[in-house]
Write a structure and sequence with these properties.
Belongs to the pyrroline-5-carboxylate reductase family. This is Pyrroline-5-carboxylate reductase. The chain has 2 domains: about 160 residues, Rossmann fold; about 90 residues, ProC C-terminal domain-like fold (Orthogonal Bundle), CATH 1.10.3730.10. The protein is about 55% helix and about 15% strand. It is elongated and about 70 Å long.
Length: about 270
């Protein structure tokens, strides 16, 4: 595979970091971006081929990953349309809220498009991605897309495109929710008198340990939580405060808000 990224920002850098760590040669990866700082940062992740000419990049690759912001996707897609029609790469879009239908219209022809929603832990090969393929994507291309995203973590197909809005709300945005919980626990630890270092490290190791246990255990998260919670003990007091504060409903509302925002983005971007 020869993989090209249009847009060399945070997500491109996360996926490239993961791909190279998984053994892919940086010489088979291209990235184009008008911003020299983005390219310099990318080069510090891996010695990939870089440039600022999107059309030149398309001539080099058979898999094209569109990693620009949703708001400029239409402009970028229309600029590269003729080159995509000539070279016929598999197009993978990671943009939130850009439907495969809009992208196909902007690119023209009948492009093979995999729309996916990865997340930033791809950088440490612990990403979680939902993927959707349009009707033009053949089996070999589905495998290529899965191979790329599996190199950076878990990759799961959804069969209806609108499910990607839920994926965006759950795992695309999800790292931010856990980071926010970490920030809150670290602050609480400091307020109780722990040093910055002790509060920070204990929080991070606890998050890692809980995630590893939840992933490797044969019982679910609820049972693992119950096993920490001794009757009349400290965890019970804390969990009751979180439950009484409406934590579950708060998460349901937050994720639903993110899902609705993904839907709104799709409508806004289609209309542009
Ligand atoms: N940040 C995240 O956690 C996630 C982001 N996404 C999606 O990934 C996409 C990229 O997001 P980020 O990497 O966070 O943004 P970013 O702003 O870090 O990167 C976008 C890059 O595109 C470049 N760019 C601008 N115009 C360009 C053009 N005409 N041609 C080529 N490159 C151009 C910018 O210079 C920038 O380096 C977005 O569509 C976002 O919805 C998807 C999953 C998670
Ligand atoms: O916040 C956003 O819109 C993007 C999509 C998922 C994560 N970041």
């Amino acid at each position: 595979m020869r993989i090209g990224f249009i847009g060399g920002g945070n997500m491109a850098s996360s996926i490239i970091g993961g791909l190279v760590a998984s053994g892919m040669s940086a010489s088979n990866i291209w990235a184009s971006d008008p911003n020299a700082d983005s390219l310099a940062k990318l080069k510090s992740v891996a010695p990939v081929n870089t440039g600022s000419d999107n059309l030149a990049l398309i001539a080099e690759v058979n898999v094209l990953i569109l990693a620009v912001k949703p708001q400029i996707m239409k402009l970028v897609a229309q600029d590269i349309a003729a080159a995509v029609q000539t070279h016929q790469p598999l197009v993978i879009s990671i943009a939130a809220g850009v439907t495969s239908g809009s992208l196909a219209t902007w690119l023209g022809g009948k492009p093979a498009i995999v729309r996916c929603m990865p997340n930033t832990p791809a950088l440490v090969r612990s990403g979680a991605t939902g993927l959707y393929a349009n009707a033009q994507v053949n089996d070999a291309q589905r495998k290529q897309a899965a191979t790329i995203l599996e190199a950076v973590g878990l990759a799961l197909w959804v069969d209806q495109e609108d499910q990607l809005d839920a994926v965006t709300a759950l795992s695309g945005s999800g790292p931010a929710y856990f980071f926010l919980v970490m920030e809150a626990m670290q602050a609480a630890g400091r307020e109780m008198g722990l040093s910055d270092e002790v509060a920070n490290q204990l929080t991070l190791q606890t998050a890692l340990g809980a995630a590893q246990m939840a992933i490797t255990s044969d019982v679910d998260a609820a049972e693992l939580r119950r096993r920490v919670t001794s009757p009349k003990g400290t965890t019970e007091r804390a969990v009751n405060i979180l439950e009484d504060g409406g934590l579950r409903q708060l998460f349901a509302n937050a994720l639903n808000g993110a899902r609705i925002r993904a839907e709104e983005l799709a409508i806004e971007l289609e209309g542009e």
